[in-house]
Amino acid sequence: MLLKGARLQARIVQFAQIALLAGMGLAPLLLSAASAVAAGPTANPGSPLDPALESASADARYAVRWVMAQGDNQGLPFVIVDKKSARMFVFEANGRLRGASPALLGLTPGDHSIPGIEQREVASLRADERTTPAGRFVSEPGRNLQGEAIVWFDYAAKLAIHRLRPAPRSERRPERLASATPDDNRISMGCVVVPVSFYETVVSPVLGKSYGVVYVLPEAQPVQHMLGALLVSRQ
């Protein structure tokens, strides 16, 4: 029941975020919770981090501290996907960083999937519909239709963390991953794509055998709003 509850909680968080963006009357409540996250001692934003995270963005560092202070990963390994910097960080359940890597993300910026994406074929998505939604997701290892091992983080929306695959040369996916800037890392259908070596040496050993938690940080709103929505969902 714990994992089912976690899945439900992840969905509630997504709906709360969409409600915030759409101005459906929940904004004051969510903003209040976000303020509590930012100011509350449980978030402990000044706590020490793994030195390897010093180069991470302020949002990513804040999110890691928050997850550990709240125990929100529920004893599971977890991932921080920082869309603004196009980087992914993989952690063991105790918060130890196992590795970080550049990542390819959905072609179009945006913090939620389009309505009804569960009923759509991936190939039918328009360019403006290919987003990597923000939120808290319970991940699980699995395989795609080609039998490739992947890590699902939103099975219904067909979104996963997977290794770099062969693609048309015009997409320049290896070059995008290798570039020094995140500006050219938007190319996928919405999945989070990492180098083959990183998937095999970090992602697969940590997330390829059990459930985990994936935190995709927002890019259209402050990260505190997402964490505030998560606190609201607990209530």
Describe the fold and architecture:
There is one protein chain. With about 240 residues, the chain is an alpha/beta fold. About 35% of the residues lie in helices and about 20% in strands. The chain has 6 helices and 10 strands, in the order αααβββββββαββαβα. The chain has helices at about 1-20, 25-40, 60-70, 175-180, 195-205, 225-235, and strands at about 80, 85-90, 95-100, 105, 135-145, 150-155, 160-165, 185-190, 190-195, 210-215. The strands form 2 sheets. Strands 3-2-1-10-5-6-7-9 form an 8-stranded mixed β-sheet, with helices on both faces. It has a two-stranded parallel ribbon with strand order 4-8. Helix 1 crosses helix 6 and helix 2 (about 25-40) crosses helix 6 (about 225-235). The protein is globular and about 45 Å long. The two termini are about 20 Å apart. Residues about 1-15 and about 15-45 have low confidence and may be disordered.
Approximate helicity band: 25-40%
Low-confidence stretches: 1-13, 15-46
Average pLDDT level: 82
| Number of helical elements | 6
Spatial strand order of the main sheet: 3-2-1-10-5-6-7-9
CA-CA gap between termini: 18 Å
| Binned strand content | 15-25%
Which geometry do the CA atoms define? globular
What is the string of SSEs from the N terminus onward?
HHHEEEEEEEHEEHEH
DSSP strand tally: 10
Question: Which structural class do the helices and strands define?
Answer: alpha/beta
Largest sheet: 8 strands, mixed
Radius of gyration: 17 Å
